[in-house]
Design a protein that fits this description.
Largest sheet: none
Number of strands: 0
Strand content: under 5%
Distance between the termini: 41 Å
Number of domains: 1
Helix content: over 70%
Order of helices and strands: HHHHHHHHHHHH
Oligomer: single chain
C-alpha cells in the first residue's frame, strides 16, 4: 500500500546517523549483555525526532529483537520469576497508557535516570554480602510496575527492573533469558495502547521496516558475548550501562 502524502519518508542523513547506532545498542542490550545500554536508544533518537515518534518507530524493531532473544535463550528462562514479573509490568503499562498525554517524556526519563544513579550509588557504597537476602517481593512488584510504566513512556524499562533483578544474583544466561521473555510480553502489550494514542502511523512503520535488518546484528553480537562472559564481568558491564543511562537520562531532563 502506498504511503499517504501526509506522512513523507525521513531522508535526513543525521536521523539515520543517530538512529542506526541506537538500534545496534538496543540489539546488544536485548541479548542481556550491557542491558542498561538499551535505555539510551530513545534519548539518542530524540536528538533527531520527538520522543513519542522515536518510541513508535522502535516498536516493530523491538518485536523482532524480542523474538530473536527468546529464540536464543528459549531453554534458560526462570518461569517462576516470570509469573511474578509479568503481571506487575502489565500494571505499569496500563498506568503509562492512561497518563501518557499528561506526562512529559523527558521528565519521566529524568526520574528514571535519577533512580538509576541512586541504585548504583547504593550498590557501590553499601555492597551486598554474599549471604544477603533477596529484595522483598513488594519492592520487586513496585520496581517491575515502574519498569512497565517507563517502558511504555520511553522504552526505558531496563533500569527499574534491573534494580530488582541484579540482587537476585542470577547467572548471566538465566538473567538474560528471563529479561528477554519479560520484555517480549511488555513490548507486545504496548501495541494496542500505542495505536489508541495515534502513535502508529504509516510513516513510522515505514521507517521501522528500513531499520529492521539492523536489529539481528546487535542481538547476534550480544548473544555471543553473553554466552562467553564471566558472571563478574557481566554485572560490571550491566552497572556501566546503567551508569551511562542514568547520566544521559538525567541530563536530558535538566538540560
Amino acid at each position: 500500500m502506498a504511503l499517504p502524502e501526509t506522512y513523507p519518508f525521513i531522508t535526513d542523513p543525521y536521523f539515520y546517523g543517530v538512529t542506526i547506532p541506537a538500534v545496534l545498542l538496543l540489539g546488544v542490550s536485548k541479548s542481556g549483555f550491557g542491558a542498561g545500554f538499551g535505555s539510551l536508544a530513545v534519548p539518542m533518537m530524540a536528538l533527531a525526532v520527538s520522543v513519542p515518534q522515536a518510541a513508535a518507530i522502535l516498536m516493530p524493531v523491538l518485536l523482532l529483537m524480542d523474538l530473536l532473544g527468546m529464540a536464543a535463550f528459549r531453554k534458560d528462562f526462570d518461569l517462576k520469576l516470570l509469573k511474578f514479573l509479568i503481571p506487575c509490568g502489565l500494571v505499569g503499562i496500563v498506568v503509562g497508557a492512561l497518563l501518557f498525554k499528561l506526562l512529559n517524556a523527558h521528565t519521566v526519563a529524568g526520574i528514571v535516570g535519577l533512580f538509576t544513579l541512586l541504585f548504583l550509588a547504593q550498590r557501590l557504597l553499601f555492597p551486598p554480602k554474599a549471604d544477603s537476602p533477596p529484595p522483598p517481593r513488594w519492592l520487586g512488584a513496585m520496581l517491575t510496575a515502574t519498569s512497565g510504566f517507563t517502558s511504555f513512556i520511553a522504552h526505558a524499562g531496563g533500569p527499574p527492573v534491573n534494580a530488582y533483578m541484579i540482587p537476585l544474583r542470577l547467572s548471566p544466561i538465566r538473567f538474560t533469558a528471563t529479561m528477554a521473555f519479560f520484555f517480549f510480553v511488555i513490548n507486545l502489550a504496548k501495541w494496542i495502547p500505542y495505536a489508541w494514542l495515534g502513535l502508529l502511523d504509516w510513516r513510522n512503520l515505514a521507517i521501522s521496516l528500513v531499520l529492521l535488518p539492523i536489529a539481528p546484528i546487535g542481538v547476534w553480537v550480544g548473544v555471543r558475548l553473553a554466552r562467553r562472559i564471566s558472571q563478574v564481568l557481566f554485572y560490571r558491564f550491566l552497572y556501566a550501562g546503567m551508569l551511562l543511562t542514568g547520566v544521559k537520562l538525567l541530563w536530558d531532563a535538566v538540560r
